[in-house]
């Protein structure tokens, strides 16, 4: 595609709110050296796709077990974490709210913001200050930077409490982080991650199948579809750039290093190809109105774009698996 939309502002912005929030938190830690591209890559968020097979529901982007997922991501960056709450769909009890406020104040007194959910809208954001006398939190998400009363925490649009703080850190090398990121990315691509009973959500390569299935039924939610198109296109741009930078950084002359460099470069091209296919998709269903995804002509074209993107991504995943084999072999020596 000759001209692709740039939602990333040359990789200084991401629409994926937990990636952006984690990056903001890291600016107050010893890992402020990591770029936004590196945070997207080393957390494996750049490789994420979660789709509702029934309607491409807007909630798909957050259909994962937040505490487990974010704990694993932070651990890959070298951080220990503690959290209160999760995707329960239940308002917090007074005791849970009190525990959350204690964690928030403890972390902020150390000078480190926290990751949180549904501060002003159902997205991830950060809590970066508090006023105990006024009983308010200072928060920022994609829609607002402002004050939130203590009692509104976990009682926003969706009535779910979730806050996560980093509690400790050990310095982890980038090669170790790369190994962990590739492992998470391949697992996400190949294995079902959201295992709640009767869940309609599918991730990884099966996420593309779910998306295609919904289009085949002519039962696609216009806003959810355009939102996921924008999000996943954004993420694949970051995936391609991350792998390109990995390839550029590898300077070793051993056979293993040369092979790893070649594979990273090839994987970057594959994920750039995925972004090309998704660029066509987002042009057809532009955010935020999203066009008419259930029109037969539009649905047929969407299925073609998504099928092509899936085929390119499967080749990309195979290259990530080859990179993992090289890293596993190097570590075994």
TrEMBL record:
Domain of life: Bacteria
UniProt name for this protein: Uncharacterized protein
Provenance organism: Paenibacillus hemerocallicola
């Amino acid at each position: 595609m000759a001209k692709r939309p740039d939602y990333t502002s040359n990789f200084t912005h991401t629409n994926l709110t937990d990636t952006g929030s984690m990056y903001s938190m890291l600016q107050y830690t010893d890992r402020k050296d990591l770029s936004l591209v590196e945070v997207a890559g080393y957390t494996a968020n750049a490789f994420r796709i979660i789709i509702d097979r029934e309607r491409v529901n807007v909630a798909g982007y957050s259909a994962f077990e937040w505490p487990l997922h974010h704990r694993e991501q932070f651990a890959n960056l070298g951080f220990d974490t503690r959290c209160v709450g999760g995707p329960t769909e239940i308002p917090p009890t007074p005791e849970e709210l009190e525990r959350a406020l204690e964690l928030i104040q403890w972390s902020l007194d150390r000078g480190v913001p926290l990751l949180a959910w549904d501060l002003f809208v159902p997205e991830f954001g950060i809590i970066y200050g508090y006023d105990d006398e006024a009983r308010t939190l200072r928060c920022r998400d994609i829609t607002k930077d402002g004050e939130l009363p203590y009692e509104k925490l976990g009682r926003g649009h969706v009535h779910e409490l979730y806050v996560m703080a980093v509690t400790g850190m050990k310095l982890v090398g980038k090669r170790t982080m790369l190994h962990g990121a590739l492992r998470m990315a391949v697992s996400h691509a190949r294995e079902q991650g959201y295992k709640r009973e009767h869940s309609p959500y599918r991730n990884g390569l099966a996420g593309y199948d779910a998306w295609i299935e919904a289009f085949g039924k002519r039962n696609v939610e216009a806003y959810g579809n355009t939102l996921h198109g924008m999000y996943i296109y954004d993420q694949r741009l970051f995936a391609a750039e991350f792998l390109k930078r990995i390839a550029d950084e590898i300077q070793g002359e051993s056979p293993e290093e040369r092979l790893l460099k070649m594979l990273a470069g090839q994987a970057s091209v594959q994920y750039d190809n995925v972004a090309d296919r998704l660029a066509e998709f987002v042009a057809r269903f532009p955010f935020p109105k999203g066009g008419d995804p259930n029109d037969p002509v539009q649905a047929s074209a969407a299925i073609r774009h998504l099928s092509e993107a899936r085929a390119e991504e499967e080749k990309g995943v195979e290259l990530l698996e080859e990179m993992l084999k090289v890293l596993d072999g190097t570590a075994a020596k």
